[in-house]
Amino acid sequence: MIVRRFYKRVMSENLIASPLGFNGPLPPARFNMARYCLAESARRWPDKVALIVVSDANAPLDQAERWTYGALDDAVRRVAAGLIAEGFKPGERLMIRMPNTSDYALLFFGAIAAGIVPLPSSSQLTEAEATFLLNDSAASAVAIAGGMGVNVGDARVIDESMMARLKAHAPLADYADTLADDPAFLVYTSGTSGSPKGVLHAQRSAWGRRPMYQGWYGIGPDDTVLHAGAFNWTYTLGVGLTDPWANGATTVLYNGEKDVQVWPVLLERTGATLFAAVPTLYRQILKYCDLTKHDLSALRHGLTAGEALSATLLDHWHAATGKQLFEALGMSECSTYISTAPDMEIRVGSPGRSQPGRSVAALPLDGGDVPVAQGEIGLLAVHRSDPGLMLGYWRRPEEDAEVFRGDWFIGGDLASFDADGYLWYHGRADDVMNAMGYRVSPQEVEAALSLHPSVGEVAVTELKVREDVSVIAAFVVLKEGATKDVAALQAFAAANLAAYKCPREFVFVGTLPRTPNGKVKRRALQR
């Protein structure tokens, strides 16, 4: 794989990359992501609380599940040893289909500690969607919680009883002696092909997150980080677990009933200093919660990613709390690489500048690998020497070839840079949508809806309903004789798609706008 060969060359020469390349410190040649996150913090602060899992925001906080760094390090190595004892081999894929519990985190990091490759998946996926991931990844096992369907086929099942055995095993003496470029974990993201594709990350991906520490968070060991996301999302795995633990901070995760009212309660009761969420949640908190009833004095600032941060939301949050929101832009293939840090000027409408050490540019739309001039719109690209960049797409070499141009990885976003290096986002070059921070392929949603007996044709796109709010909308051409039944289409979508992929609006049209060669013009539908 081209990415791996280039990165190994840089590491073997023990060089800091050239100006057109990652120019921060590179990870050691031998590097294990789980060891990096836990071993040093466990040595320095064995009795410090590393993780708090809250199931009931109104119950006394001392009743919440707590893990010290010492206990967490021990448990992760126990799970790693248990997996090896059960016959799992380094490099095998292990799918996780569980809710936000500590077992999810233990299994994710325990697999990495053993050199096994975990595949975190969303609990919102339907059985068919989960089965696709299991089959496409060729995972040898799947960890399943009750009520979460998947056609396991020949894969082994890790149920509650096996999980108990793993945690009871004698701990592994040390973390797996992996190379920085060895596979660590696999995540799936929507793409323009219409079906999810696997993004394979290396052990070095945790090291590749170091530019975020001060380039976005301003994080240190005294921080308590409250994250509002689910474990399957790289935003949560990174910002909610990997980075706080690598810095000796405390992380708080909530897995109780969904209720926007819990977030200010948790912020106050945990004394969270950093809060990470998508803009939509901040907007809901402002709309449905009375923040004057809560003491948010411990909170330094909020972190936001996954969706664009509007000027209106930024102003309203600051007015209501006196706190700032710092935005970041990223992707599943590299996590965040553009951000605004606490010591930077916030420029409304821009997510910030390239994080320290990273090499980011805008490349010509019509080809070539020479960055465009200041102020010119181009395809946003990250240099392939960045240690946070993926190894490649899982078993899709043709897509690897499409996204690399010379020494640059192109993610499909359109952007320009101003004289001070601030990025200005100009949308997607492809049709991929953004729903609550998740990338959603319109082709995937269209393929599911087209199976409904009343649908003749369908096109799916984002539709702006307010200045700072967009929803997924389906434009439907009915078959002859079919009736307009939005409720039936909504129910069909819910049965075949994860909730975040389901259209929020259905619009019935006579025809779909097309180009001369017959391709649907989705942007023409975005009224």
Write the layout of secondary structure elements.
Elements: H1 2-12, H2 33-44, E1 49-54, E2 65-68, H3 69-85, E3 93-97, H4 102-113, E4 117-120, H5 127-137, E5 141-144, E6 156-158, H6 160-168, E7 183-189, E8 197-202, H7 210-217, E9 224-227, H8 234-246, E10 250-254, H9 262-270, E11 274-277, H10 279-288, E12 301-304, H11 311-321, E13 324-331, E14 335-339, E15 352-354, E16 360-363, E17 378-383, E18 392-393, H12 397-403, E19 404-405, E20 408-417, E21 422-428, E22 433-435, E23 438-440, H13 442-449, E24 455-466, E25 469-478, H14 486-496, E26 505-508
Attribute tags:
disordered N terminus, 14-stranded mixed beta sheet, 527 residues, 26 strands, Rossmann fold, alpha/beta, 28% helix
This entry's quaternary arrangement is single chain
Question: Distance between the terminal alpha carbons, to the nearest Å?
Answer: 42 Å
Total strands: 26
Unreliable runs? 1-18
User: If classified by CATH, what would the architecture of the largest domain be?
Assistant: 3-Layer(aba) Sandwich
CATH overall fold name of the largest domain: Rossmann fold
Number of helices: 14
Largest sheet: 14 strands, mixed
The helicity comes to: 25-40%
Rg, rounded, reads 23 Å
Mean pLDDT: 91
**Structural class, from secondary structure content?**
alpha/beta
Number of individual domains: 2
Main CATH class of the largest domain: Alpha Beta
Gross morphology: globular
Strand content: 25-35%
